[in-house]
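job 3f2a | input accepted
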Amino acid sequence: MLCFLLTGLKHSVQEVEANDGSTVTFKRIHHVHVQMPDSLEYQPVECSLVVNAAGAWSAKVAEMIGIGSGPEGTLAGTKLPVEPRKRYVYVFNCPNGPGLDCPLFIDNKGAYFRREGLGGNYVGGISPTEEDEPDPSDLEVDYDFFQEKVWPHLAHRVPAFQTLKVKSAWAGYYDYNTFDQNAIIGVHPLVPNFYFATGFSGHGLQQSPAVGRAIAELIVDGKFQTLDLSAFDFLRFYTDTKVLEKNIV
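job 3f2a | predicted structure (249 res):
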């Protein structure tokens, strides 16, 4: 797999007069500019289409083509509402905890855990409230967050977890969709060769097989074939049509 730093998108512009006399600007990407690994060299790469699957940095990529830079309240001025959100996952040990037949457990407050291997180890965590959102500028782990926000819920559900011991932890990023916390899948209406596969808000790994097939169908066939995922398109941000789920973590 070739990895490089995307530095820009080069495009052409076509202006079309709408029925009401206004001008609609369409763009088409022709090249992406990239910086090669361990090099100061920049290269233009010709392309027929671009799939924005840049995760937490998808909005930065969208800005490179001018998405969201138009007048406020217009389709051209509608931004991609994705931002990085920092999340912690903790590994803890409890020899007397639930056995191998324990499923993934999620309580009604959002705290979760699952067993990890044969040594009495578990992984778990909880998504913070808006008030407790950590600074996403680094990936340092806050162990106090586990003590104050996660452990009380786990110990309430599983009394054996009163004596658990945290062994390690890590932090990573959600590509968080601030609009409705759901996926953004499909093509941009004003940039017909710019596709989205982002905004999964923590569910990307679970949904990736279906999303990969859906994007492939959209590119090759011009429409969804297996599952109709049109409800997750970019246009919903302009029309203020949220796709909400009641029971998600």
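job 3f2a | The longest strand covers residues 5-17.
job 3f2a | closed
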